[in-house]
Amino acid sequence: MKYSAALFLAATIVTQPMLSNAEEFPKVSGYLSTSLNNKWRYKTENDTERNNLYIYLEPSVTVNFTDKFLLKGTITLDFIKDKYPSKNKFFNGEDIVTKDIYLQYDNGTYGGQIGRITAGFGRAWWATPGLGATELAEWYAIWDRWGVKGWTVLDGQQFGKVNTTLSAFYLDTTSLSGTLFRKRSEKEEWKGGAGNTGYPSSFSLSFNGYDIEKLSGFSWNVDFMLQDTTHRTVSGVSQTDFKDEYGIAIGMGQSNDLTDDLKSNFMMEYVMFDNQWGETDKKQSYFTIGEELVYGKWSAQAALTHSVSDSVGSTASKEDLYTVSGGYKFTDNLSLKVGWQSYKTSTNTEETIRAKIAHTIYF
Predict the structure, then answer these.
(1) Residue 26: is the preceding peptide bond cis (ω within 30°)?
(2) Strands (DSSP E) along 144-282, which ranges?
(3) Alpha helix stretches (DSSP H) within 86-178
(4) What is the pLDDT of residues 99-121, one digit of tens each?
(5) Which of 23, 24, 232, 264 gives a 20 to 30 Å CA spacing to 342?
(6) In the chain, pLDDT over 90 holds for what percent of residues?
(7) Residue 37: helix, strand or coil by DSSP?
(8) How confident is the model at residue 12 (pLDDT cuts 50, 70, 90)?
(9) How far apart are the C-alpha atoms of 91 and 38, rounded to whole Å?
(10) Cα-atom radius of gyration of the chain, to the nearest Å?
């Protein structure tokens, strides 16, 4: 967009954090993440090769009223729309998006949020290591939702801790569901689909285990999801074949210090949906596996996500996302990553070289 380069420059030169007294409330804290990104799609089968240079900004502000009660808001400036997929882009296509806005209470044992939330479901959409490695799994992230969620942490001693989270939500169809400069339109309740009911009638239940005494570095997750579907439209036409969407996710992670300097982070997850998006008998599955090796300030990542979609009366379709990347941390707040990405479907293969330099300011 027009002022992207200026915004990036302004964000990166602000280096002095704002200080607050930890003993006094209310207090304000937060961060500003900035990154300069380049994607060179050098190979496709549908003539859409191009280069895309764009900026990403994520400012987040937290107001702590007490040591347990806070208000948090996060927005992003990100590349949104690809109106001309075969043309090179230079700071063109970014827009401002609302991420989360919620009130939270957390005393360390139990807590909750209310507002515009991200419901708990799965790990691959945020935890898969590598540059661009989450892009396929992000399709099942339950964000852009109004609702409530609550959690509690149970300590099973030698069997570890389990964080149990229950969320109730519905799809955001307010002006916050679009982008500020209209590169993405607002979602509309009349279109229906999974979770688009106007009231919190959809649910997710997540179990996340960690700190297991005899399994150092091991974590696991089991998640369930139901998205209420009251109606569904396709191209503005009401459909009679709609059902509630169900999903289950099972995953694990393992972190180990292989040597004094070399650390391994491994993750794997399988996710399955029935009646996806509210479409009767539409089934979709995702399998993700990823590994990261960290050696001092250097890191290397490799990941794969395989997805299969199957609907009644149609041939099953497959998608595969392969990523390999490496990175270097100049400081705790400044890093560089470069990588290769291959995205394959039954009709097309795209191969991309990516680079990202990221800086974060905390205040």
Answers:
(1) yes
(2) 145-155, 161-171, 202-210, 218-227, 233-234, 237-238, 245-257, 262-274
(3) 124-127
(4) 999 999 999 999 999 999 999 99
(5) 264
(6) 79
(7) strand
(8) very low
(9) 10
(10) 21
Write out pLDDT tens, residues 171-189.
999 999 999 887 888 999 9
CB 229 within 8 A of CB 194: yes
Q: Give the residue carrying structure tokens 């097309």.
A: 348
One-letter amino acid at 288 equals T
Residues 6+ apart with CB under 8 A from 332: none
Q: Tell which residue, 96, 149, 97, has the closest CA to residue 118.
A: 149
Give the Cβ contact number of residue 363 at 10 Å. Answer: 14
Per-residue pLDDT reduced to its tens digit, 265-304: 999 999 999 999 999 999 999 999 999 999 999 999 999 9
Residue 169: pLDDT over 50: yes
Instruction: Give residue-wise pLDDT tens across range 19-39.
Output: 444 568 999 999 999 999 999
Over 80: is that where the pLDDT of 18 sits? no
Burial of residue 245, with CB atoms counted within 10 A of its CB: 0-12 exposed, 13-18 middle, 19 or more buried: buried
- Residue 293 identity: L
* Dist. CA 358–CA 363, nearest whole Å: 17
> Residue 66's closest CA among 101, 26, 106, 104?
26
Amino acid at 7: L
